[in-house]
Design goal:
about 70 residues; mainly beta
Length: about 70
């Protein structure tokens, strides 16, 4: 099995049975969920959490494109 989630210069910080944590070249960190199904493990790309730079703001976007921001 090969999980292709890295880009040139990225680093894997941690791997568990539930998550893969990757530090991106720009310094942000992606927490990528791993889900085990009948067909085996897969990454759940729609539920990635990105830890980035900012002033303690949390952003998310709904399925219909509405951006929600909390402070």
């Amino acid at each position: 099995m090969k999980i292709k989630v890295l880009h040139q210069g990225d680093k894997v910080l941690n791997v568990t049975s539930e998550f893969i944590v990757i530090k991106r070249v720009n310094g942000e960190v992606d927490i990528i969920p791993v889900v085990v199904t009948d067909m085996g493990p897969r990454v759940e790309m729609s539920n990635i959490v990105t830890i980035g730079y900012g002033d303690n703001v949390v952003e998310t976007e709904t399925e219909d494109g509405v951006k929600i921001i909390s402070f």
